[in-house]
Amino acid sequence: MTPLARHLALFGLLLPAAQDPQQTPTPPPAPRSTLNHALVFLDPAHGGDDAGAPLLSPAGEPIFEKDITLALAGRLRSQLSALGLTVLSTRDTEAQAAGAPSTGAISPSAPTPDQRAGQANHVHPFACIVLHATGTGSGVHLITSALPLPHSSDAVPTLLAWDAAQAGFLQQSDRLAAEISTAIARAGLPVHTSRATIRPLDSLTCPAVLLELAPTRGLSPADSGYQARVAQSVATALLFWRGHADPPAADPAAAAQP
Ligand SMILES: [Zn+2]
Question: Which is it for strands 36-44 and 208-213: parallel, antiparallel or unpaired?
Fold first, then answer.
């Protein structure tokens, strides 16, 4: 098992293999929807009682992953807003219940993976970025779903299982990951791409990439300068991606339900 898989399994985010699509019920045709080309959705992982992985700050102080993902999301939001893009996030505070206003009371419980996916799928963003951080590995890890690509004969709208709703967007997600990877490499940072079966990635009905920040060249994922370089790179990639994102021919967004 890879360090990422161990990390995700530890927090209950690693899913078993996707269900047999033959067992998926046949639904009525889903209406075609379009992506909102002004909207980016961010999911800073963990929060509240779920602290995520323990890491060290640049000063050597203990810091939890949930605080790093929130800080990185804040930097990314600033960069994207400056480019004229709208940003929605699963949480803007240390922990925030699903559906709560961003300035509302802090809940001890962070949104569940299904709540995070439900929030994203409701607004049809042209990109969903799930943020994690880790003390192992090196550089920036970009992960897309390991779900199997749909067959071409699946072009007619079908009801996809909630845990496999990302399947129709896989090609878009891979292209988005490639854009982000190029931008991060241009910034002189190590970047690695891979696939994994992960919550809530597999349930997202949008081009979706999980970004996990790992240490590099003595820099902690909590380092503000490191975070800023990554945020700048991702924002640049998303601005380009904005003109290339499209819903799949058979958009499962309206059909997938938890
Ligand atoms: Zn994590």
Answer: unpaired
